Amino acid sequence: MRIGTNPSKNDISYETIYFHQIIIPVYIPNNEDYFVDAFKIFKICLQSLLKTIHTKTYITIVNNGSNIEVVDYLNSLYKDKIIHEVIHTDNIGKFNAIVKGISGRKFKLVTIADADVLFLKNWQNATYEVYNKIPRAGIVGLVPQFRSFGAHSTNLIFEKLFSNKLKFTNVDDPDGLKMFYESLGWGNNYNQDYLKYHLTFEQNGCKTVVGSGHFVATYRGDFFETIKTHSNLKMGPKILKNLDSLPLYHKLWRLTTSKNHAYHMGNYYEKWMDEEVQKLNENNEKSIELLDFNQLTKENKISFYIKNKLFRKLFNRKEFRRFFYKIKDLPKSSITKY
Predict the structure, then answer these.
(1) Which residues in 176-306 belong to E strands, given as ranges?
(2) Long-range contacts, 239-243 (Cβ 8 Å, 24+)
(3) Could you say which of 49, 74, 176, 212 would form a disulfide bridge with 141 (CB–CB 3.0 to 4.6 Å)?
(4) What pLDDT, in 10s, does the model give residues 33-70?
(5) Contact at 8 Å (CB) between 208 and 258?
(6) Do the strands 166-170 and 20-26 form a parallel or antiparallel pair, or are they unpaired?
(7) What is d(CA 83, CA 65) in angstroms, rounded to the nearest whole number?
(8) Beta carbons of 144 and 210 less than 8 angstroms apart
(9) What is the value of pTM for the model shown?
(10) What is each CA distance from 146 to 71, 105, 189, 298, in whole angstroms?
């Protein structure tokens, strides 16, 4: 026998309140050696996130086997309603942790970020502008990187090979680009032309860098309705391929905002990180309305093979690559060494 009405029936669905989910997997097993500054950097990551998001953002943190200090910190954030969801697991690997964060939820957009990302002002609006103005955007990164067109982007290059919308242009933020590679521990002995020119695609007045990294990127939420839900691998490029290749199966593209909208902090704390967070004010900018997406369509097998397998082999040939650089406005002095 039932008496009365279940009060949960009148609860408002999270889908009517939030449309953008942020998932951050965190793995800090101790405070020694490689991880000596990791907890401090993770706190800076969350501070920058909280200062730069709008109120329709849903924050999920997946604790992927961290120590008790991190566990207690996350529980306190959840208790104080600073974050919306915390999931505790053993170390099941980055991909499986992400899947746990996605499971049971349905959002229009999902941003996946490492625990050492420092978010900058206006990053959400910059992301929404790309999705609104370039309907075939599938993944949108926040940090331009060297030659990012070289991975999982031959579908776009094949389709726009003779379009003037696809061409090499000047790097908008060379300092931000240089800073990213310093955070990876690189020296400055790379090709300096990488700081001057990158391959961009422009549509409806929105310029983007072709390709995307995966330490922080935003995905169409409907991708995850068809994604593989488990992997035996914990880290490395093979596991990240599951995420990187998602747009290719749906006639969509991997892009990055032309300006830098986040920093990679790495595992070593530096004073500039706190200084950057102190520059951030609470987000009071009006959020750009995110337009509805077209329904996902599957790329047919023949077309997929031509764009992502056959053409990729041609694109990787030195002779063709130089031809491509020439017709896409890369300066003549840079063609042989780019």
Answers:
(1) 197-203, 206-210, 216-220, 253-257, 262-264
(2) 239/93, 239/94, 239/95, 240/94, 240/95, 240/214, 242/95, 243/95, 243/98, 243/112, 243/214, 243/219
(3) 212
(4) 999 999 999 999 999 999 999 999 999 999 999 999 99
(5) yes
(6) unpaired
(7) 19
(8) no
(9) 0.91
(10) 36, 34, 13, 30
